[in-house]
Design goal:
2 copies of one chain form a homodimer. By secondary structure, chain A is an alpha/beta fold. Chain A has helices at about 15-30, 30-35, 65-70, 85-95, 105-125, 140-145, 160-175, 180-190, 195-200, 200-215, 235-245, 305-320, 365-380, 415-425; strands spanning about 5-15, 40-45, 60-65, 75-80, 100-105, 130, 155-160, 225, 245-255, 260-270, 285-290, 295-300, 355-360, 385-390, 405-410, 410-415, 430-440. Chain A folds into 3 domains: about 5-135 and about 305-340, Rossmann fold, CATH 3.40.50.720; about 145-300, Dihydrodipicolinate Reductase, domain 2 (2-Layer Sandwich), CATH 3.30.360; about 350-445, Alpha-Beta Plaits (2-Layer Sandwich). In chain A, strands 7, 8, 9, 10, 11, 12, 13, 14, 15, 16 and 17 form an 11-stranded mixed sheet that branches.
Chain lengths: ~450, ~450
């Protein structure tokens, strides 16, 4: 070790995709990290259930028990990459009790137990870093908590689940069906064998609840996130959206309004020219609107071994830089001083204002269109765009008598839309349910 | 002041566009800043040549002499927003000598005197922050120095001059001419009365030299940046580029190669589907490729009063957080420890490898095309794409006998291209010079 270098001991818990990537990045990147920090960061112990063949463990202590790592006096920083919320919570709280600083990539843990963990850590003056929990390699936690520290953030919107974005991109670009692309995503390892967390939006909801908290200085409200996945999106809707100048993306959106905080994850039509609309494949991006900076966006790989390890190791370097600082001088866990975190109501989805894409199949277009228009108008909903096709253009799946009508509405309160849809579905000449997808024009929206 | 809050004194030098924005943001954002930092950040003195009518100066000491601010014992942090390089350099060095920390938005100052300033500051344990100097509101300095601290960065490319991007966007979208859009940009205040810094690429070269330094850990090499502006870009080239699936953007590109560092600012054809290609108007974006994170991109407003003030005040908050830390624990000025900054050769432009867009007007297309092909082939240059139009399609400006030929080449060393172009221009049937624009497929390039 060169003159002036110090050594910091890392205890690595978990050696799966992200753990293995972190192990190897610390080994391969060591020279560059010393160039930046003048500190020698050394893995002193690894806990894993099975060895990872991609990692050379010959020079490191390996244990099967994560608590061995927590109790190892040579460990200064515990890196929690075991996933899940039960054992991970115990591990993290035990590490805090031992005075070890923490780095984690575990969004479920922070979204569900963050408040408890941060309170315990604050009492002991312990750092807890979680950049890797949100949008993988993208330093968006740092951007929001530090880069925009002078700003009042008013809303943010993100493509924060790579699997959903991969599926929607393939469906759009290659005209493939949802089930077909999902099966491929599973083969490629993007989606878990049980893909529910990804495609039902739960993973995105975990991340959104954390982003919302660090943006607005509110508690983490995972239980209040309105969550809708992508399973109902069809080729037909993607194609109509495109005809209207939109693309369908699975977004997490949080917005500060006078009546409360919007916190919602759902498929969304956004203008095809928007930056977010051009985020394709498994890539992630978070667009943030704040009063001084305006729109800023952060883009990159949202998952994967090396990209996530990049964020984990950057967090380790952050801990090394700040572990000796007075705790009150460090950036607070959620970006705001604990006593300044203000609980605000989360707006129920029925009270959220949004524009909508509606698709309805009608039997006799002339007469029904008049009825639909009347219902919308009676509910004070206006039609901003409309597609009506001749029956002959639509043969696939529909009988000639079924004609789709596609409508984009103005911005309205969801409760009004629910009422209008119920009335439309009660009409005699309607086939099946009304399809609805929310529409946002974020990049032009400076509210 | 609430319990536990400390007060930090700011000396604000310069009250123009950015200075005025900073003054007002500190006033309006004070409550939110206290929520984040528990520190009361107060402007104790302002130096300006004329008062800014947008700022209420009634509760602050105002001086015409910036050195009054430097010598004011109540000032903890000097914020240099006077611009220029001579007085600004004296001011900054005097502040360092007085033990004041520094925040600046001055890219010309850092690009030309950064090494001297950082050396002086390091001796005194002084912080010097310059997030606002590059890409306005976008926290890209923080992203590179801290967010990607675990990564080896291999290249970066950015749209880092809003005026040039505004002009190119207007030319493309509205089919307007360069001079016409430039005049509007001047009316709108995007471009200075003397727009040379912007449209000749000097402003972008300042920023690129700093970005390259913090990405690779090399000295700031402003004098070695190859710099080309946008004045020669025509409607015709924008339209051919579009036909070939490209857009023309003014990029700053720096890349680490085995033979040295590429450091170049020039108009560039990039695939129309790339994220960078969709950065429009006065917006900026920096795309970074690193070994672990892969491609990450940072997007936002690159200039303007409030966006730049957002970065200035975020830097002030960073200083407040780290001014009491041990200097060796802080993120180094250029992201790397001073003794680890390695001087590397900057590759002369003749040695840079690039693909090229070539446009040449020929008198007799059949015969000349064969000659051109032979010249390219003899210089080991291959044709990746080609547009040849019938003479009758081209009447504007050209006589019927003049036919444009547009070629995209493979990636070749610039010296070979220079030789080929000289040979082509020596042909009898060529009208005028060969137009050349570099082509990069950055987002698919993981080298």
């Amino acid at each position: 070790m060169a003159k002036g270098e110090k050594s910091i001991g890392i205890g690595l818990c978990g050696l799966g995709t992200v753990g293995g990537g972190t192990f190897n990045l610390l080994a391969e990147g060591q020279k560059e990290i010393v160039r930046r920090t003048a500190v020698d960061i050394k893995i002193v112990q690894v806990a894993c259930l099975i060895d990872n063949p991609a990692c050379d463990l010959s020079h490191v202590k390996v244990t099967r028990d994560v608590f061995d790592v927590v109790n190892n006096p040579d460990v200064d920083i515990v890196v929690e990459l075991i996933g899940g919320t039960d054992l991970a919570r115990q591990l993290v709280l035990a590490a805090i009790a031992q005075g070890k600083h923490l780095v984690t990539a575990n969004k479920a843990l922070i979204a569900t137990h963050g408040d408890e963990i941060f309170a315990a850590a604050q009492q002991r003056g312990i750092m807890v870093c979680f950049e890797a929990a949100i949008a993988g390699a993208i330093p968006v936690v740092k951007a929001i908590r530090e880069g925009l520290a002078a700003d009042r953030i008013t809303w943010l919107a993100g493509i924060i689940n790579g699997t959903s974005n991969f599926i929607l991109t393939e469906m759009e670009e290659k005209h493939r069906d949802f089930d077909d692309v999902l099966a491929e995503a599973q083969r490629l390892g993007y989606a878990e064998a049980d893909p529910a967390f990804d495609i039902e939006g739960i993973d995105a909801a975990h991340k959104l609840s954390i982003l919302s908290s660090i943006a607005f200085g509110v508690p983490i409200n995972f239980d209040s996130v309105y969550t809708e996945g992508i399973a109902k999106i069809t080729q037909q809707d993607i194609s109509y959206a495109s005809e209207l100048g939109y693309r369908i993306k699975h977004l997490g959106i949080s917005r500060l309004t006078e009546d409360g905080i919007e916190l919602r994850v759902h498929p969304t039509l956004i203008p095809a020219k928007d930056m977010l609309a051009n985020v394709n494949g498994a890539m992630n991006a978070v667009l943030v609107h704040s009063d001084a900076a305006g729109n800023t966006m952060y883009y990159g790989a949202g998952a994967g071994s090396k990209p996530t390890a990049s964020a984990v190791v950057a967090d380790i370097i952050d801990v090394v830089r700040h572990m000796d600082s007075a705790p009150e001088k460090r950036t607070p866990y959620l970006g705001f001083q604990a006593e300044s975190i203000l609980d605000q109501d989360v707006l129920p989805i029925e009270k959220v204002r949004c524009a909508y894409y509606l698709r309805v199949e009608v039997l006799d277009k002339t007469g029904v269109m008049a009825s639909i228009s009347t219902i919308l108008s009676n509910n004070l909903i206006s039609i901003e765009a409309l597609i009506q096709k001749e029956a002959s253009e639509f043969l696939n799946g529909l009988t000639k008598a079924h004609v789709p009508i596609v409508i984009i509405t103005n911005r309205i309160v969801e409760a009004s839309l629910n009422k209008a849809i119920a009335e439309i579905e009660a009409l005699d000449d309607i086939n099946g349910e009304v399809t609805r997808i929310r529409v946002e024009a974020l990049e032009g929206d400076h509210g």
